[in-house]
Design goal:
The chain is α+β, with helices and mostly antiparallel strands. The chain has a domain of 275 residues: Outer membrane efflux proteins (OEP), CATH 1.20.1600. It is built from 14 helices and ten strands. It has a six-stranded antiparallel sheet with strand order 3-4-5-6-7-8, covered by helices on one side. A two-stranded antiparallel sheet has the order 1-2. Strands 9-10 form a two-stranded antiparallel sheet. A hairpin with a 5-residue loop joins β4 and β5. The longest helix is centred in the last third of the chain and has 69 residues. The N terminus is likely disordered.
Length: 578
């Protein structure tokens, strides 16, 4: 990346110095810059060149682009390790669907795949999760920088005086660097260029002193703080945190996709319920009109007319309640997707209301395989086990902090002589070396930190065993739920068929005068209940299957939509046959 050099501006007073002619009155006159300021400006120019070569100002746009490039590379690598290759970005689309809907656009009917894409682009929760992963990776770049070569550079220039007399002039530049190594060795170096011109009323010497100073110093811990396991722990933990965040993001994608699907089917279920209520209301209204006609003709008593009227009113009220519930479900769904609440959201549920779309529901993975697969694939369980290792390393680092400190320190300075800022003489090197010892007494903070690390280690182990048991218990329950939902779905299909036959039979009997209105009303109510129960059973059947595969970490979100990875199950079933 091309860096733009900062412009150093210094406001300097005019180049006027006071000169004194012998035996004459003092006369103030300007001193030509080439004579008086030459070395001052040369030193400042040297600092400028030094700055140009070692540092520069980064614009906000460049800083953002550089950070994004580095962070996205880190995230891409981690996601590839998890077999996730779809593009990752935290930047919103230039034209979001939400804004288009606010501006008055209308949606075409959308299916589940469309809804998952809409949720990924517009959901606030989804964007939060993406940004959380980005921020964790951004923290890693800081740790990587901490263990890289760090450079610094600067320049300064100043002049001072009294009244109209310039007394002191000084300018210089410095470039420095530092590096921390895995053993704990820290090396610092610098190169400084300085030029100074000092005058006073007691001395007429206006000569310039210019020199260059090179320094190098090292510190190496020999006891406490020694070794890569201690020194590199912040970097190691930051790298592992990125892996954990990547796992959490992928786990979120599958759980969020399940949530979207769940609310999608809740809406479809409520749509079907409203349709059933509407059909029931139309049937009861027709029955009430028929009874009123028969009563006017003297062929039916008023009791049966009143029964039909009461059931029609109840049906009308139920229809209003279910329509209001449907509107609420739509609003909740749009909120989850991140769409404007007042927008229209037409759904295209055609293929999802067919059981053939969900053919994988017929698979019956055994409990042992389900549990084994989940414990080997679940991202959250992997992270829980890795956190035990993190806690063990924390114990090691905390124990190291209780040790005595012993460090080696050494340094050297090489400075040029005046008026020779580019000529170094090795005989002018000054150096020093020594050891420092820090006796480990009064270490109460370190003692407490060590004890806390032991407790955290025990907690990490308990949290892992707890998650293990929760996963096993949830999977066993989900298996039972899936089996029960499958059986319930088959039962409700038969119940609806019987209820429809009963309605037809009672209507024929009513026409023939072999039954009364109460029987018809009861059969209509039974049909409505059966249809609603069938819709609920169908939805529960699909969602219970998705929940099981989600918690086995076999529910994948792909560019083509929601995908159930049945490969491991089919392979296992085939292995049993062979």
């Amino acid at each position: 990346m091309v860096q733009k050099a900062c412009i150093l501006r210094n406001s300097l007073p005019g180049p006027f110095l006071t000169t004194h002619a012998p035996s004459q009155l003092a006369v103030q006159k300007p001193i030509s810059p080439p004579l008086c300021w030459r070395r001052f400006l040369l030193a400042l120019g040297a600092g400028w060149v030094l700055l140009m070569g070692t540092s520069g100002c980064t614009t906000p746009a460049e800083a953002r682009a550089e950070a994004d490039q580095q962070v996205y590379a880190i995230i891409e690598k981690r996601r590839e390790e998890l077999s996730e290759f779809d593009p990752f970005t935290i930047d919103p689309a230039t034209e979001t669907l939400r804004q288009e809907l606010i501006d008055g656009a209308e949606l075409e009917p959308v299916d589940l795949e469309d809804l998952l894409v809409i949720a990924a682009e517009n959901s606030r929760e989804y964007r939060d999760e993406r940004e959380d992963l980005f921020l964790v990776a951004l923290t890693l770049t800081l740790q990587q920088w901490n263990f890289g070569v760090q450079e610094s550079a600067g320049a300064d220039a100043s002049t001072s005086g009294t009244d109209n007399e310039t007394v002191d002039q000084e300018a210089g530049a410095i470039w420095g660097w530092s590096k921390v190594f895995g053993s704990g060795l820290q090396v610092l170096g610098s190169l400084a260029l300085r030029t100074v011109r000092l005058t006073s009323s007691a001395s007429m010497d206006r000569s310039w002193d210019s020199f260059t100073r090179a320094t190098l110093s090292i510190t190496q811990p020999l006891l406490r703080g020694f070794g890569a396991e201690i020194v590199l722990e912040p970097l190691i933990q930051a790298e592992r945190n990125v892996l954990y965040a990547a796992r959490q993001f992928e786990r979120f994608r599958s759980t969020f996709a399940f949530t979207v699907t769940q609310q999608y089917f809740d809406v479809l279920k409520q749509v079907n319920k409203v349709e059933n209520e509407e059909e029931n209301y139309r049937g009861l209204r027709a029955l009430r009109l028929r009874n009123e006609s028969f009563a006017e003709a003297g062929r039916l008593d008023q009791i049966q007319v009143g029964e039909a009227q009461q059931d029609e009113l109840r049906a009308r009220n139920s229809l209003l309640v279910e329509r209001a519930a449907l509107a609420t479900d739509y609003d909740d769904f749009k909120f989850l997707l991140g769409l404007p609440i007042t927008s229209n959201l037409p759904l295209d549920p055609a293929k999802y209301l067919s059981i053939n779309t969900w053919e994988w529901l017929d698979l019956d993975p055994p409990e042992e395989f389900v549990i084994q697969t989940a414990l080997s694939r679940r991202y959250d369980y992997m992270t829980a086990k890795d956190l035990i290792q993190d806690a063990e390393r924390d114990v090691h680092v905390a124990a190291d902090a209780l040790r005595n400190g012993l460090g080696l320190e050494a340094g050297a300075v090489l400075q040029t002589r005046n008026d020779s800022p580019t000529t170094f003489d090795s005989s002018d090197v000054t150096w020093e070396a020594g050891l420092n010892f820090d006796l480990a007494i009064d270490k109460l903070p370190e003692r407490n930190a060590y004890r806390a690390s032991l407790i955290n280690e025990a907690r990490a182990k308990r949290a892992t065993t707890k998650l293990h048991d929760e996963i096993v218990a949830d999977l066993r329950q989900e298996l039972r739920t899936l089996i029960s939902a499958r059986e319930s779905y088959e039962i409700q299909k038969s119940a609806v068929a019987l209820a429809e036959e009963r309605v037809q039979s009672t209507l024929l009997s009513l026409e023939a005068g072999r039954t009364d209105t109460r029987e018809v009303l009861q059969s209509q109510e039974a049909l409505l209940t059966s249809r609603n129960a069938l819709t609920a059973a169908f939805t529960a059947y699909i969602l219970s299957g998705l929940a099981l595969y989600r918690d086995m970490e076999l529910l994948r979100v792909t560019p083509e939509g929601l995908l159930v990875d049945t490969g491991p199950i089919i392979a296992y079933m085939e292995s049993l046959k062979s």
